[in-house]
Amino acid sequence: MRLTETAGEKAPRIGVLASGPRGTLADIEGVTVGHCTLDEGAVQTGVTVIRPHPGDPFIAKVPAAASVINGFGKSIGLVQVEELGVLETPIALTNTFGVAAVAQAQIRAAIRANPQIGREWSTVNPLVFECNDGYLNDIQALAVSEQHYNDACDAASVDVASGSVGAGRGMSCFDLKGGIGNASRVIDVAGRSYTVGALVLANFGRLPMLTIDGAPLGRVLAGRAAKSVAAGSAAVATSANSAIQATASKPEQGSIIMIVATDAPLDARQLKRLSLRAAAGLARTGSVYGHGSGDIALAFSTAYTVPHESDFVALPPVLADARLDPLFRACADSVEQAIVDALWHATSVTGRDGHRRLSLRDTAPDLAQLLKQSS
């Protein structure tokens, strides 16, 4: 098991490809990420926004494409992305019942910047992805508002937090605390260096399925939880382990949103192929894309923009399909690493009706030793 320093702590390192300097989606030049976190009793949720470049994405659209690996989801905007192959708003992540409010916020923001939208010009395509954080968050409170989207946009920077932040605040992953995860990989293609980055909203999986860099860690932790309950350990531990044991045997009904960015010059067709490789990284962690899961990947490139109004679009030379394998590998590694990052940096959260999700590190304080033994 390879270990590396991440934010001052040792985290499992996936693969052998080099990371960018930050190890986040912001290693793609121009990309920024902002979070707005709601942490108030039963309300444990938030909004995360990804800006593809510093300018106006409606005026200067970026090429993009998505792959729906399993479609149990309530996202907005995917149909037009599939048809036109571009983004024209920032990408937003939130909880399932927050989608409408965030989409309206995106529309209002686009109209403020471009009053011609919906009149002299076409309408704007908001793009919002979601996962259901209803175990920890009182999702019926409809707590997410337009202001939370605006706050996340205002907070966007290259300093990207992971864990129980933004849209990831109330998310669960492998019956542990999930949330936002980041990673990046650098590859050489045709004599040039390119970066692929991933940001995930991880809210899927059952504990016995959890696999980290090939190690069946989930089975070990699930076995521990069962023994703790049987032995009647301390009240807090028993309560937490009972919750893990009770949910670990239920069907997979979680979701994950995987956002992949690259500075490599790809067209929308090639970006769709790249987005599909996110599923390889997801599968390595133990997911089987269950019936009730919403597993969606979107990939975009910052290598060029598509103007809103133009008779012709000047595209740079794009990579030949036969040169895409290094990007496919970097995508799979980045997504797997980002899921591990979400688990590693998540903090334990107590929310609705006293429901609690322990972080991976609170569940297994001896995690580093367990991983070494499994290598």
From TrEMBL:
Any Pfam family the entry gives: Peptidase_S58
Signal peptide (from-to): none
Enzyme nomenclature, EC number: 3.4.11.25
Keyword field: Aminopeptidase, Hydrolase, Protease
Gene Ontology molecular function, alphabetical: aminopeptidase activity
InterPro entries to which the protein is assigned, alphabetical: ArgJ-like_dom_sf, Peptidase_S58_DmpA
CDD domains per the UniProt record, alphabetical: DmpA
Enzyme class: hydrolase
Family assignment from sequence similarity: Belongs to the peptidase S58 family.
Name this protein carries in UniProt: Beta-peptidyl aminopeptidase BapA
Species for this entry: Paraburkholderia domus
